[in-house]
TrEMBL record:
Upper classification of the organism: Bacteria, Candidatus Gottesmaniibacteriota
Swiss-Prot/TrEMBL cofactor(s): pyridoxal 5'-phosphate
Keywords: Aminotransferase, Pyridoxal phosphate, Transferase
Name this polypeptide is given: Aminotransferase class I/classII large domain-containing protein
Family that this chain belongs to: Belongs to the class-II pyridoxal-phosphate-dependent aminotransferase family.
Ranges for domain Aminotransferase class I/classII large: 20-323
Coiled coil: none
MF (Gene Ontology): pyridoxal phosphate binding; transaminase activity
Record organism: Candidatus Gottesmanbacteria bacterium CG11_big_fil_rev_8_21_14_0_20_37_11
Length: 350
């Protein structure tokens, strides 16, 4: 395949430059479970020198989601699984539907597989009868908004010759999940990751859930050892620390509510997020992003999310101090654009 537009094929993560005040990548502001750090300091030599055995981790995940190990395929992050699924499902000139304004890797991998791309809006009526594969992000990235399970279930049932990929990278923030639907259907994958709520982004671990038959077929495309023994051990430890997971979700919810309140006070419209991402709408987003970068602040432009159709930028919720600094710099950026002096106080973030 000849790559004629490399810019389209680069994801926003490849373009990110870490700033002093970094609001870009979706990382847990609390880090990871203390149990994971403790386990890391006590890892034995065999865990490192031997080839990994994923049995214990697979069993732990299966108990967590009330499914069988045969319904799970591990991968080096959900990103690797997205690539794997496109290799498995798409042939040249197949039609691929991608949720408008969602994760850029869907577009990249579909294009690399030679697919014809169409965007869709989940709030509208859609006909997927000609689609080979449909990518849905729930909760969505960058908006953090939920897609109703009635829409997803209805599509999976109606278009049973189409493969649906439900990316639940931030699924821990939702009460509902499409896991049960995926296990009971022969045309649906759910993707999960340890990078977000569990705070293990550096370990690169994700997993696909589907029917036994579908997972068996997909596993034929997987490498024999996609993850390390260290990753297996630490991920299993993270899954067992329910308190840290609950604390992370609660912390992010509180900080998100505060940030949304302050952004709304400044006249910004924000997405109805339930996750650690917020999409901030602004008609002057290009200017704001440019000034923020000069002030040492990193955000992600809405242009990085294919088919977004909205002016704005995504921020990821951080710790209180970083969030305060972001608001401070945002005020400075607005003042700079408006060419006015502005007195800034951190005390209004209570």
């Amino acid at each position: 395949m000849v790559l004629t537009n490399m810019k389209i094929l680069k994801s926003y993560a490849q373009n990110i430059k870490r700033r002093k005040i970094d609001m870009t990548l979706s990382e847990n502001p609390l880090g990871c479970s203390p149990r994971v750090i403790k386990k890391l300091t006590n890892i034995g030599m065999k865990t490192i020198s031997n080839y990994p055995d994923t049995t214990d981790l697979m069993n732990t995940i299966s108990r967590e989601y009330f499914i069988k190990p045969q319904n799970i395929l591990l991968g080096c992050g959900s990103e690797q699984l997205i690539k794997l699924i496109t290799q498995f499902a798409i042939r040249k000139n197949d039609t691929c539907f991608i949720q408008r304004g969602s994760f850029s890797l869907f577009l990249k991998e579909a294009k690399l597989s030679g697919a014809r791309i169409k965007f869709f809006n989940p709030t509208q009526k859609n006909d997927f009868s000609q689609a080979k594969i449909v990518f849905i992000c729930n909760p969505n990235n960058p908006t953090g908004e939920i897609i109703l399970s009635t829409f997803i279930n209805g599509c999976v049932d109606k278009f049973n010759n189409t493969i649906f990929v439900i990316d639940e990278a931030n699924g821990e923030f939702m009460k509902e999940s499409s896991v049960k639907k995926a296990v009971r259907s022969n045309n649906c994958f759910v993707l999960r990751t340890f990078s977000k709520a569990y705070g293990l982004a550096g370990l690169r671990l994700g997993f696909a859930i589907g029917s036994t038959g579908l997972i068996t077929k997909l596993s034929c495309f997987q490498q024999p050892f996609p993850i390390s023994g260290v990753t297996c051990l630490l991920a299993k430890t993270a899954l067992k620390d329910k308190l840290f997971l609950m604390r992370s979700i609660s912390f992010i919810r509180k900080e998100r509510e505060c940030l949304v309140l302050q952004l709304n006070k400044r006249g910004f419209k924000t997405s109805d997020s339930i996750t650690n991402n917020i999409f901030v709408k602004s008609p002057i987003s290009d200017k704001l992003i440019d000034v923020l970068e000069k002030l040492g602040v990193g955000v992600i432009s809405g242009k990085e999310f294919p088919g977004m159709g909205k002016q704005g930028f995504r921020i990821t919720i951080k710790d209180r101090q970083t969030n305060l600094l972001f608001l401070n710099k945002l005020d400075q950026a607005l003042a700079c654009i408006e060419n006015k002096k502005l007195l800034i106080s951190d005390n209004n973030y209570d």
